[in-house]
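Hi L., both proteins are below.
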Amino acid sequence: MQIAKGVEWTAHICTLLALLREGQGLNVDALAEFFEVPSAYLAKQMQLLRRAGIVESVRGKGGGYRLGRSVDAITLLDIVTAIEGPMPAFRCTEIRQNGPCGLKRSDCKRPCEIAAAFAVAEDAHREALAAKTVASIMQDAAINSTPEHMMEIAEWVQRQTA
């Protein structure tokens, strides 16, 4: 299973937006600069997050994007679904019905064993993503980062919104 780079980018961006003070936002160009990613591509990803209610756009001075929900209410599954859509990664095309020994459609009363195995794996994957919030990621980052690096990030955010 491959997760799109837009998921990685927007997950990081949600943790950065969490540092904003009430009423502030960061524009796409600043966000793109912070992570050194293409602004135009990032803008498309941010629109997907906005449509999902994960972020909201703010107009005017200090405008841009801010979180649309609390960090406890945004999960990695929310971000993945916003960027990649709700469809499962594995889609069975019933190739067991093809070829010289293919089953008749009427004989396929249950999902094939391969589709069933992938469904179990995908359920576990989605469950793990749903259990991880932006808040918990930020807690892990705070534990694993130096205080100096955390201050550097906070100061950068404040300069962008001043």
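That was the first. Here is the second:
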Amino acid sequence: MNWKKLGMIALLSTLAVPAYAKVVTGSQTDMNMDLKYPLVYTENAIAQTAINTDIAAYVGEAKDAYYNRHVYQVSQSYKVTYEDKDVVSLLLTTYYYRAGAAHGSYRTRGMVYDKRTGQRVPLYNYVKIASAKQLDTAVRDGVLSFYTSTRKRTYLPQGWHVDYASDNYFLSGKGYINLVYQPYELGPFSYGNTFIEFSPKAIEYFNRMNS
């Protein structure tokens, strides 16, 4: 089945929202499925369609896991992390629990959209990163902050390293940018998602190094 197409129909059918709305919640449920996802409303109909088509793909993946791959439990949630007249920044988390597993698993995707075009804004529009080693060094030196899923600032645990430069990111306001890493990538499962945060000063430093 074309889940992307079906998801898009469901998303757009719920977009009868007041003109002042920016992001509203769409939902689809079944016995062991609870999906809550963002529906983004913009003044530009083409941009609005592009954004919600992109989001629909992630909703479709979650439904495919539930109905076709028979994952026991699937849920989805989101958070608006920042919005202004030009962009909207979202975090979308999909949780999967397979029958008999010791615990569930989840993946979190940061999505920053240009509200005028509907396209994703690439990370390099904000900050230039040359390598994973550059990130690893900056985290260890305190130039970049490292957070667990509960937003507790901490250090990279012993034996863990930044092995790749993530382009999965979100905006958190006041010029701050957070790179998103999945569970087990930069720490044990108890850390959950981990985040490497760039302050405006760190962004200037990286862009100066890598210009």
